[in-house]
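Handoff note, outgoing to incoming analyst
You'll be picking up this chain. Sequence as last confirmed:
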Amino acid sequence: MAGHYHNGMDLLSEKDVERIYHVTDQLQLHRDWVVVPLGCVAEAFEIVQPDGKLLMRPPGGELFEPWFDGLASRLSELDLTRTARLGTEDPLKPHFPRARGTRGYLEGPRKAI
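Most recent structure output, in case you need it:
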């Protein structure tokens, strides 16, 4: 990872984030449930939050590659049972009633059964 900086803060590049998502895709994790902030930290960590989302804070600079090399094994040690999997509906997505538009006006009042 080459240093990417903004206002003195070390940032992940798009390529770095995509590499991280490639690892989580191999574990069949839903991308909406994987949180990777762009700002790097001095002490990296990976945790499963109380809502089941996976939060990863990678280090910057020359520490990124060693962290990334062990990422898959560290993630496989975490309890990811509450984390949504690829191909499933996001469990936290709100479910709204289906809109009918003007159909109700055109069809007239609904008859009770």
